[in-house]
């Protein structure tokens, strides 16, 4: 049996490396992680490893910004929103931070796969 597998955290909708069309799906997913303007640059589509590199950096940057926002929200917005809004805002920041962390991990996995690093399941 030669079943292709993906590591935990692999992006949904992207077939396993080596599957037909997997790189096209990976490029589309990576572009979804970047600002929309990145789609205007043909270099990213022609050089998927470079796209994976910049997408991973972009998402990691968003994680840093989200952590900073979480730390500063009470100080910077506390006077400007109703007190009962803060838990809701903090919850949204936390959920977005978790989503971004998962996407950062997935982008790193795609980058590794595009660079030819094989996935070896662990027991």
Describe the protein's architecture and organization.
With 123 residues, the protein is mainly alpha-helical. It is built from four helices and no strands. The protein has a domain at 44-114. Helix 1 (22-32) packs parallel to helix 3 and helix 3 runs antiparallel to helix 4. The model has no long low-confidence stretch (mean pLDDT 93).
How would you summarize this macromolecular structure in one to three sentences?
The protein is an all-alpha fold and 123 residues long. It has 4 helices and no strands.
Structural descriptors:
single chain; 123 residues; elongated; mainly alpha
Would you spell out the secondary-structure blueprint of this structure?
Blueprint: H1 22-32, H2 42-46, H3 48-77, H4 85-114
Helix pairs in contact: 1-3, 3-4
